[in-house]
Amino acid sequence: MTQKVVEKLKLMVVDDEPDNLDLLYRTFWRDFKVYKANNAHHALAILDQVGEMAVIISDQRMPDMNGTELFSRTVENFPDTIRILLTGFTDVEDLVDAINSGQVFKYITKPWKPEQLKALVEQGRDTYNLVKKRTKELRNALQRESLFNAVTTAIRESLDYDSILQKIVVTIGQTFAVTSCLLRLVEGDRLTPTQFSYHDPKSPAITSLLVPIPLIEEVFHTQKYQLAQDTHNQNPYHYLVVPFSYQQHLLAVMTLYQWGSEQPWQEEDIQLITDVAEQAALALSQAKLYQSLQEKQQQIRVELQVARQIQNNLLRQTLPEFDGVKVQACCYPAREVGGDFFEVFVHPQGDLWLAVGDVSGKGVPAALFMASAISLLRRELSQQSPAEPNMVMQNLNYALADDLMSNNYFITLVIASYNRATKELVYANAGHIYPLLWSHSATLVTQPHYLKVRSVPLGILPKWQSQPGRLILAPGDTLLLASDGITEAKVSLNSESSIKTDSSGQPINSSMLNQEGLWQLIQEQPQPFSLEHLLTCIQTDNHLQEDDQTILSLEVL
């Protein structure tokens, strides 16, 4: 086994007396690579040629330039060097100034004791090694932080997953001055065709990069970096294969190529690259998850748009014509799909059926119950002789109650039938807000007539029961059915005299419309009465629609 040779530290001795130079050389040549200089100028020339010394031992009294002056001229270029001053006289001021300015580590008087000087040099060597170690650690930490910041910035500035990968490859390639860098994604246990690359513009173009398959297979197996050397067209090159792993899951493999270098990466560089790869793998995992979520959200949006169209098609796109009456209806879900619905159905026997319903909750679950309810309702109304509204309601509850109760849902619903011959309106109410009835022929209408016959919503009890409500409509009468998305809409208070305050004295700028506010808006509507115009007035103040909004009117002509 070959033992690694540790290179000796460099030490320089400076003295104008040859005997002292020889003595110092013999003292330290076994432990240091010793350089001799017989004056300060000679010492500076050696430093220019050889570079930094670990330790410089210099005599103080020398011709032209003394020891402290020599040391002062080496501080800027070699701040870490340990300087030991040999002095044969006591000049306290010079020594104190030299030590305080950092030029001199220690001083020793002539004649010195060899053991004392060797102990002092060993102390200086240890100090030099510690300083160098700390400096290297600090430099590596700063480099790591700088690179991490560069990668983080590149990731944050990227707009999508592919852009993030390309920015990472370019950042690593430029930071470590590689010839080329290639990153390939991993799916399962294989490389995908998707790849991202960087090439140093100052290097000659490489027509094809050799993919080190054996090393990549080893990376797949161990999830550890692999370093190797090879030749291409008789030119040697090095490559480093680094895994991008997160939670033992291999996301990508990056190969760094370097041409024309004997040793392109130091151990600390490789460690830094692997550290960056770990950080990048975390970012890639998060970016991939974010991209997957975006794709799923887009898919959900598309599916909800289709569901909205399907649900919209379930409602009457054109209302049937019925002599002697005018029917209007509008339905606006708060989300893509909702639980509100309406129905306008003309039976072959001549009766006109109206309904407005509201499934509790919002979104897809409510929309599914809405579709079931409207389908069952149409089946009931299509019978040769439909039952009265309260019996239709009872049949709907029988069909829907189990599913509604098991899923903690319920449906509020108003069903009404209007006989054109007798002008009779028969209705049933399952927990829905009261229908409003008013007449334009009346000379003074201060309050509408609320149809208050009502029972519990569908899906509350296994058996639904209620008596129907009955009344005769006259020409000029208008019946209005609305969902609670209308009456619970937030609207601004326009009249300054009606501005209210809460318990702390702060003004309340908006309030729930309620049925009283709806009636006030209806009275302010121009003739002929238009549901679209009424909804426009409500939605003007109701900037955020919190619930589905459905409204239906029957006006007797």
From TrEMBL:
<protein>
    <submittedName>
        <fullName>SpoIIE family protein phosphatase</fullName>
    </submittedName>
</protein>
<keyword id="KW-0378">Hydrolase</keyword>
<dbReference type="GO" id="GO:0016301">
    <property type="term" value="F:kinase activity"/>
</dbReference>
<dbReference type="Pfam" id="PF01590">
    <property type="entry name" value="GAF"/>
</dbReference>
<keyword id="KW-0808">Transferase</keyword>
<dbReference type="InterPro" id="IPR001789">
    <property type="entry name" value="Sig_transdc_resp-reg_receiver"/>
</dbReference>
<dbReference type="InterPro" id="IPR003018">
    <property type="entry name" value="GAF"/>
</dbReference>
<dbReference type="Pfam" id="PF07228">
    <property type="entry name" value="SpoIIE"/>
</dbReference>
<feature type="domain" description="Response regulatory">
    <location>
        <begin position="10"/>
        <end position="125"/>
    </location>
</feature>
<dbReference type="Pfam" id="PF00072">
    <property type="entry name" value="Response_reg"/>
</dbReference>
<dbReference type="InterPro" id="IPR036457">
    <property type="entry name" value="PPM-type-like_dom_sf"/>
</dbReference>
<dbReference type="InterPro" id="IPR011006">
    <property type="entry name" value="CheY-like_superfamily"/>
</dbReference>
<dbReference type="GO" id="GO:0016791">
    <property type="term" value="F:phosphatase activity"/>
</dbReference>
<keyword id="KW-0597">Phosphoprotein</keyword>
<keyword id="KW-0418">Kinase</keyword>
<feature type="modified residue" description="4-aspartylphosphate">
    <location>
        <position position="59"/>
    </location>
</feature>
<dbReference type="InterPro" id="IPR029016">
    <property type="entry name" value="GAF-like_dom_sf"/>
</dbReference>
<dbReference type="InterPro" id="IPR001932">
    <property type="entry name" value="PPM-type_phosphatase-like_dom"/>
</dbReference>
<dbReference type="InterPro" id="IPR052016">
    <property type="entry name" value="Bact_Sigma-Reg"/>
</dbReference>
<dbReference type="GO" id="GO:0000160">
    <property type="term" value="P:phosphorelay signal transduction system"/>
</dbReference>
